[in-house]
Amino acid sequence: MNDLKRFLILNWYPDKKTDSDLAKALGVDDSLISKWLNGAVEIPLERKIQISKVLGIDSRIIFPEEENIGGIDG
Questions:
Q1: Are 62 and 55 in contact (CB under 8 A)?
Q2: Distances (CA, A) of 71 to 10, 29, 34, 37, 64
Q3: pLDDT, tens digit, for every residue of 21-56?
Q4: How far apart (Å, rounded) are the C-alpha atoms in residues 30 and 18?
Q5: Contact 63, 55 (CB under 8 A)
Q6: Any idea of the CA torsion for 39, 41, 56, 62, to the nearest 10 degrees?
Q7: Most CB atoms within 10 A, among 25, 26, 31, 48?
Q8: What is the pTM of this model?
Q9: Rounded distance, CA 6 to CA 72, Å?
Q10: DSSP labels for 43-54?
């Protein structure tokens, strides 16, 4: 399980938010979210930054492999 999926399970879904909510916030199709969460498609760096901002967290929490992304402010 990737860190993004783990974060959503622990922090997003309990608030009754769904993958569809995340897709809408990012302006992408629901199926793309599913592919990212299942590891079928790599999340582009720009989207990692956007996801972190939507979730309101430091990107390194869910994308620890990306050392140069930075915090929620960029």
A1: yes
A2: 20, 25, 24, 21, 12
A3: 999 999 999 999 999 999 999 999 999 999 999 999
A4: 10
A5: no
A6: 40
A7: 48
A8: 0.84
A9: 19
A10: PPHHHHHHHHHH
